[in-house]
Amino acid sequence: MLKTLFIPANSQQRGRSFQLLSCFILMLLPLLHPEAFAQQKRVNLVQADVMSYDKRDQDVRQVHGRVVFEHDSAFLYCDSAAFNERSNHVEAYGNVRIRINDTVNLYGKELFYDGQTRVADMRRDVRLVDGRTVLETPMLSFDRNTRIARYQAGGRISDAQNVLTSDQGSYFMPIKRFFFKSNVKLVNPRYTMTSDTLQYHTVSGVADFMGPTTIVSDENVITCRQGWYDTQLDLSSFSRGARLSNQNRNIFSDSLFYNRNLGEGRGFHNTLITDTSRQVLISGHYALYQELEGYALVTDSTLARFFDGPDTLYIHADTLEAWFDTTNALIRMEAYYQVKYFRTDIQGLCDSLTYLATDSMIIMLGSPVIWSEDKQMFADTIRIWLEQGRVHEMELHAQAMIISMDGLTRYNQLKGKHIMGYFVENELVRMKIEGNAETVYYIREDNGRIIGLNRAVASDMNIRLVDREIKEIVYIREPSAILHPIDQVPAGEDRLSGFQWLGHRRPKRPIDVFYW
User: Fold this and answer.
1) How far is CA 53 from the centre of its chain?
2) Tens-place pLDDT, residues 219-257
3) Within 10 Å of residue 151's Cβ, how many Cβ atoms?
4) What is the dihedral of CA 450, 452, 457, 463, to 10 degrees?
């Protein structure tokens, strides 16, 4: 009669009670199901040319020449063996082979096989062949119950495409999967992969890695701490510190998908593209990179950073596209939809922007506006030429206007069809206005007191500035000017047509480029 076991509520007591219950059940199992614990199948000697008994142990038979054993549908072949019938053990030597099934064979020079545990320990020049996959190692332990083979002294597997080596490894035969540990190396004709821990499926050719991993090829170098690589289709996915490097360019991402045949990479979440030759960083949450075309697209919270000594230019837009030359240096970048940028000496916004690295030129389209010091500049199109990272020349084309504040409510204004601005050390020193030139600016005495408002028109104008202030205006062809005393300025005369002050949209900090 079986008594009911009481399991206490205390966790430690519950654990002990569970162990007692488990032992109790294990003791009962042979009585309940005796057939489950029947004697293990015996190792059978099928063939041998010569057989003798060991005088020291009558249970051991020595067999030589074309030796064959059978055990539970597996066949063991060797040159000689010591067979212990009582313990159900076989020690085999010389050209040892275990035929596990029609596709799996285990080879070596020495073998200890335990018929009770069904574990085979093979030594010296060991080879495990499973179809087209070959495992080579000095020593191998193969458990026929679990059908798992393990090695601890270094191993090498090869198939039609890859050669893998590692210090330790296991082969899970039912699922055709290898598990490699320590100094793992996979060599493929197109790349070499090194890893701390790696799994490899012999049928699909997919390698899964769970530790620091590096993949080196002629095209690039990829590093990560987790991911998978399909060696048959050349598709891969990387995460946890994923990085793809190619000469001057690097791509970092939380998750990186790569198609080696197309040379195409896709980054998801916290993606960063760097160009070390141009000192440029482009970031966003999604990136498409086409290696063969030298093209990259970044979107979702995009930000491009151009480093120039102590200063940095920040550009944000809905989408950024970049093109690279054969050395992978940036040659062109396009930003479009709600573009905004910031640098300590210049800020701006527009609908689309093009940066030509080879020409050191920026082109702004779609209601472009630029702020520099106390000046606001806008036109239909704006072009900026850079020299050593600084503004050298600026062109405002069509409906061009420059406005600067003179107090809280007063504005000096310049307007024309076309305005060229010339800079020295990032400071505007000269301007040339062509076509329907107009100016509105306040006249001051030497002590700074405002005495009047001058409104002038001409076909063209040349303007010279000193310390950011207009010092000289040269009117060219058909000039006309009116000076209004400051207390007699007619309504509306202090504004040129098209005037708009957009200071509220000016970015004051790098983070402001994200706010349109």
Assistant:
1) 67
2) 899 999 999 999 999 999 999 999 999 877 899 999 999
3) 24
4) -20
Who contacts 349 (Cβ-Cβ below 8 Å, separation ≥6)? Answer: 338, 339, 340, 341, 368, 369, 505, 507, 516
Lookup result for tokens 């910031």: 342
Owner of token pair 């472009």 = 368
d(CA 107, CA 90): 15
Residue 116, C-beta contacts closer than 8 angstroms, at least 6 positions apart: 40, 87, 88
**Three-class secondary structure of residue 16 per DSSP:** helix
What number of residues does the chain have?
516
Among all chains, which residue has been given the structure tokens 């060797």?
78
Q: Is the pLDDT of residue 123 over 90?
A: yes
* pLDDT digit string, tens, across residues 438-467: 999 999 888 888 999 999 999 999 999 888
pLDDT at position 23: 35
Q: Which long-range contacts (CB under 8 A, 24 or more apart) does 147-156 make?
A: 147/172, 147/173, 147/174, 148/172, 148/173, 149/106, 149/173, 151/126
Let me know the angle formed at the C-alpha of 87 by 82 and 91, rounded to the nearest 5 degrees.
25
Check if the beta carbon of residue 417 is closer than 8 Å to that of residue 400: yes
Poorest-pLDDT segment among 243-247, 495-499, 511-515: 243-247
For residue 101, give both structure tokens: 């099934």
